[in-house]
């Protein structure tokens, strides 16, 4: 019998956040994204300490990985000059940062 829930998130490696932060620092949006990631990360670690759950840490990694992977498609879309006024805020899809 396993003590793990059926929907346990994949294990995180210690280097995952560091690698993600390195990629964020290399992005042209680093001046705004790095402080936002660091704030989210600190909050997730604090939440994890209080809840004894790594879910907040996984949520931050997943959200920022999605933002980083979607960035080239967003850049391409914006470069075409298409009207983006009917867009959806990414926080509505991924959840808001608290």
Number of helical segments with 4 or more residues: 4
Strand proportion, as a percent range, falls in: under 5%
**Class by SSE composition:** mainly alpha
Tell me, briefly, the overall form: globular
Mean pLDDT: 83
- Tell me the number of strands: 0
Helix content: 55-70%
Return the string of H and E elements.
Answer: HHHH
Distance between the termini: 36 Å
Low-confidence blocks of residues: none
Structure description:
By secondary structure, this protein is mainly α. The chain has a domain at 13-20 and 32-78. It is built from four helices and no strands. It has helices at 14-26, 30-51, 55-79, 90-94. It is globular, with a radius of gyration of 16 Å. The mean pLDDT is 83.
What layout of secondary structure does this protein have?
Layout: H1 14-26, H2 30-51, H3 55-79, H4 90-94
Short summary of the structure?
The chain is mainly alpha-helical and 98 residues long.
What attributes characterize this protein structure?
4 helices, 98 residues, 66% helix, mainly alpha
